[in-house]
Specification:
Shape: elongated
Order of helices and strands: HHHHHHHHHHHH
Largest sheet: none
Helix content: over 70%
Distance between the termini: 87 Å
Number of helices: 12
Strand content: under 5%
Radius of gyration: 25 Å
Structural class: mainly alpha
Amino acid sequence: LPTIRRVVDRELSLPEVAAAHAEALAVQIRVLGLRRAVLTAVAERGSTPEETELMHRLAQLSEEERRRLIGDFLDAAFGGLDAAPAFAGVMRSMTPELPDNPEAEQVQAWVELAEMSMDPDFRAVVRRMAEDQAAEEVRSDTMGPRRDIAASLRDQVGPALAAGIDPASPQADPIVAAFTAHYAHLLGRPDDIELRRRLATRLESVNDPRRERYLQLLAVVNGWSAPESLGPVFDWSVQALRARTQQ
């Protein structure tokens, strides 16, 4: 009634009042959307009261608070490495950007991604991957343009997977030789049994399912296309390497 009186008395215009109410409703809708997303996730995951409280807090973080949380995670993973400048693009590509009016699935993905980024074990896994890659980056500085290992494996191993070639079979020998030769060139080392064991260990680390899950969640939050799963490629490659490095 006081607002109506101010409109009648021409202290406020009707468009001004409508705009203020529309803005207030937008805020309420966003809050309700966040609550709905969290409650849906709680119902689907069977969360404990403690987990539910954490999910509510993560969903309601401000943009600045979200940036600090992810920034802390990325600093823990990539900070202080010799090849840190080379990781600038990687860090940007791993940064979630929750929109102002997110869909329920984006909120749920953000909450799960934020939980992962705070997990000390997951941080250690990503740090280990970054350290391995940093060592390769430093070593390959004088080797000319380098091709991403994952891309090389996808192109070389993908057809073998599609053809149903057993990774331990003789038919797999030239495929293994091709990608180990690429890795040997990258490191400037001979393609021997020790290098193949090192590559198998490297691929096992990269193939941690949590890494792929993070990228899937990131795509949902940022509205990107779902990333290609390289798990089968890594699995095949590791099996092929292990079969050829057993004493």
